[in-house]
Amino acid sequence: MISTERPQRLWYSGPAGEWNEALPIGNGRLGAMIFGGTAEEKLQLNEDSVWYGGPRDRNNEDALPHLHEIRKLILEGRLKEAEELAGMSMAGLPEAQRHYMPLGELLLSFGGHGQPAEEYRRELDLENGVSRISYRIGEVQYIREMFASYPDQAISIRISTDHKDGISLKARFNRHNWRYLERIEKWQNSGLAVSGECGGKGGSSFAAVLKAVTEDGICRTIGEYLLVDGASSVTLLLAAGTSFRHPDPELYAKRQLEELSRVPYQELLSRHISDYRKLYGRVELTLPENPHQCALPTDERLERFRKGEEDNGLIATYFQYGRYLLIASSRQGSLPANLQGIWNDSFTPAWDSKFTININAQMNYWPAETCNLAECHEPLFDLIERMRLPGRVTARVMYGCGGFTAHHNTDIWADTAPQDTYLPASFWPLGAAWLCLHLWEHYRFSQDRYFLAQAYETMKEAAQFLLDYLIEDADGRLITCPSVSPENTYKLPSGESGVLCAGASMDFQIIDALFGACIRSAEIIGRDEAFREELSAALRRLPKPQIGKYGQIQEWMEDYEEVEPGHRHISHLFALYPGDAFTVERTPELAEAARTTLERRLANGGGHTGWSRAWIINFWARLKDEDKAYANVRALLEHSTLPNLFDNHPPFQIDGNFGGAAGIAEMLLQSHTERIELLPALPQSWSEGSVKGLRARGGYILDFAWEEGVVTRAVVTCTVSGPCRLEGPGLDSVSFTGEAGSTYTFIR
Fold it and tell me: Is the confidence at residue 215, as pLDDT, over 90?
């Protein structure tokens, strides 16, 4: 049966035993992981600009003098020599960029908790962006309600009880066993202020401030503790910031809380829910579900799912959880979602919890447009703009090229020099080019020509670098060198293996997409005819996609053997997704070769990381193979999802959550081929259902329902005027000219 009344939420019958069981809240900039303990509660805190160290020029000036020799060695097949020279002359100085760090922890201790807690419930209400904890101790009922407000830029913690003086608590800050704090001070008689340095030369300073607002009871401070006694309810307000944004972050936080402390809690809650629902409430997904399963705790449902049960309700929740996480970790004015969104408890996190731009940061934003969260895309655009200046320096110093470039990572300071001396990934100068395609995608969905006119200049700069970087090979083709196919290794016929290469297939697919986007953009806004011709001429000389001896898409210009056939990266299918040069209809042979590529990868153990499995869902959806798309949705939840539904690389990386949500949307709607196709990869277990609010390229919003796999009702809302072609089972093909602001309904 289909239920349309049950709200989407994660819930658990006990506190979190570890970080991967805690529940996240966030407002884009400020976040917390909530453990939900009874006598002792912990909120692990993050602020998105708490990064170690300041900006640096890490560009290696020895790169350009040795570039010709590196290219020569690669083209001669002398890979080890090329890689040794590149490792010395191209690595960043020093080789690592800056890393993300936690803000700290807020620790709460409650009195009157000598007895065991009963009737315990811990939940994350996705509909309203609020986390709640409720339980009973003896005759006293306790409720905690927590949220991170975007309009008020603070975390609110409401603690209430049905007993007149039932609340007695102690609150204090912690940061790595109090070692990474400079100062903890009392603030008046109702607050605490903690501050310190993020560390490193030129690094930011940080501050976090806590204030208690009580309606009854007594509030006081002793040492580094804030105490509340004899209250029936209390609201704890927390604000934080760094000198990345504020000259005096402690003063900023205190002013914020002074103002908020005069606002009734219900008004704070109302403002938060109203703001949050303007984004979250745009999309609804209903699939056939079992009411009995919906009544079970989320971790129990996940465990049953792993054992083979069907649970479409859990899949719908997972989809909406992905949208929730994007809202919570990427809002206008914040930094983009990093490898962990904003939620990180380590001072030395895996891969530095940076912006990894050879797939992961891009995957974070795959659901932004189609899942109707375009505003959440803006922090990525802001970062791209900040990358232009350092990227010009990297292009000039390392390669003698114009335009701007970036490698496979960047950080809070928009660093564009290579990260690490990790040969399979570091020396790959296509990062900025891939990112710029997100600007083009935003235009394709919005049709906003004012945005395009601004974004075009950025895309043009990324294209200019590539025009200068491409070299002519012996056959007169324009190729990239040095480069890599992230992050794979190939084997020469001689038996020598390596990673640095001339002409990775993904390079040409990205270049083809970016040059094409620049040409179309320049035509739309009416400029740069000569530059368009230059790009068109270069496109004609790029190597075309090749089908290899196994019937697969070649990963490199030559049909090399892979050292790891089940590699987690499947970069050479970029043109299938997120690109659109490979399609079942227009390029059937390449689509079939893409299918073979996927089958070989999976047969050899591919998809073993969460984000890789998420990418595979999108691939199968584009190939319109509903069975394999659904099998990989299942595999993502069965093997790569933690108890709190975070994606597990392992360890936790948020990209799989975002890629998984995008994949589910891609199974329901596709719009990359100049038409809107409904239910292109609908699995049998989703034979009935409905979705509201998905967006399509061209400026359309779609609501539609289906029964027995056939569309029964479709509503198209046009945000711009223009022709629309709609297809789907039961619809056949419908074409009409829509007017901006108008809605068109089709009923079977």
Answer: no
Distance CA 159, CA 216 (A): 13
Handedness of CA 569, 575, 579, 582 (dihedral sign): negative
Is residue 660 within 8 A of residue 614, CB to CB? The reply is yes
- Please tell me the pTM assigned to this model: 0.97
314 three-class SS: helix
Q: Rounded to whole angstroms, how far apart are CA atoms 272 and 510?
A: 40
The number of C-alpha atoms within 13 Å of 218 and in the hemisphere containing its C-beta is 5
pLDDT surpasses 60 at 262: yes
CA atoms within 13 Å, Cβ hemisphere of 95: 13
CA gap 518, 436 in Å, rounded: 10
> pLDDT per residue over 146-181, tens digit each?
999 999 999 999 999 998 889 999 999 999 988 999
DSSP annotation string for 588-615: HHHHHHHHHHHHHHHHTT---SHHHHHH
Burial of 526 (0-12, 13-18, 19+ CB in 10 A): exposed
- The torsion region of residue 537 among left (phi > 0), alpha (psi -120 to 50) and beta comes to alpha
Can you tell me which residue has the tokens 């035509």? Answer: 523
Q: Report the C-alpha gap between 365 and 297 in whole angstroms.
A: 29
Residue 2 has a pLDDT of 38
Rounded (5°) CA angle 723-728-733: 45
Phi, psi (rounded to 5 degrees) for 694: -70, 145
Burial of 486 (0-12, 13-18, 19+ CB in 10 A): buried
pLDDT at 291: 87
